[in-house]
């Protein structure tokens, strides 16, 4: 068996992604700079977008789904009066409108786009249609008809109106919500068309802007030594906003070996959870992994 090249690093690096790079390019850059064996990311950002892109090294990749399930906060600038095929400034113009809605008209459009909604994704997206990526079909002049998908938008606010052509919004949402589609739809609901010119992600799950590091801070030094592993946050940082359940040593041993625990023995210790019953399982101060409440049992889902 061939040994994987690179250092076996484990942890999270929270990058402030620059505009113009794909998320995959950022992952590749980080892998090279850290000389790391395994790196993935916790939620794709469009090339135009900036902001938080959490990178998972080694065993941290096991916790990626929990980061992607976490709440995200975005800020975007909507250019009113012109629609583009990609719904952002990287696309080609496809429609124009002379209508410039008032602040009140824009705010009146927000409630229908808040809560549990059905959203039609942008045609320039990575979704697959009959085995092909939607963005490949769109580039070939065959834009697909994408069906609406469930999306959860917890907060959608107009926060600034620099001029008649421009509006700035802040959004708090669950996973899988397309900001480009929200921008497109709020413009349409207000009687005009529009596209995103600036998009920034401010939060992903437990990670916030204060955690982020600029890519140029990772540039190799004069001796070309790999970036320091001290820049990585612990693997369990990704689980910080999941309710915690303390186990005894004996209970931890059972769970670590894949056995489930009866809830009767845990009575009085179980905190409120999400709809899936997800818990961060603790052995003293150490994060053992992720468990789930199901059919009267605590079942191990992911042991770190």
UniProtKB/TrEMBL annotation:
Alphabetized Pfam families for the sequence: TruB-C_2, TruB_C_2, TruB_N
Transferase among keywords: no
Domain tRNA pseudouridylate synthase B C-terminal: 180-239
Active-site residues, record numbering mapped to chain: 46
Catalytic reactions on record: uridine(55) in tRNA = pseudouridine(55) in tRNA
Residues annotated as domain tRNA pseudouridine synthase II TruB subfamily 1 C-terminal: 243-304
Keywords, alphabetical: Isomerase, tRNA processing
Coiled-coil regions, chain positions: none
EC number assigned by the record: 5.4.99.25
Highest taxon of the lineage: Bacteria
GO molecular function, one term: tRNA pseudouridine(55) synthase activity
Alphabetical GO biological process terms: mRNA pseudouridine synthesis; tRNA pseudouridine synthesis
Domain Pseudouridine synthase II N-terminal: residue ranges: 31-179
Functional description taken from the UniProt entry: Responsible for synthesis of pseudouridine from uracil-55 in the psi GC loop of transfer RNAs.
Similarity comment text for this entry: Belongs to the pseudouridine synthase TruB family. Type 1 subfamily.
Listed name of the protein: tRNA pseudouridine synthase B
Species, as recorded: Acetobacter peroxydans
Lineage: Bacteria, Pseudomonadati, Pseudomonadota, Alphaproteobacteria, Acetobacterales
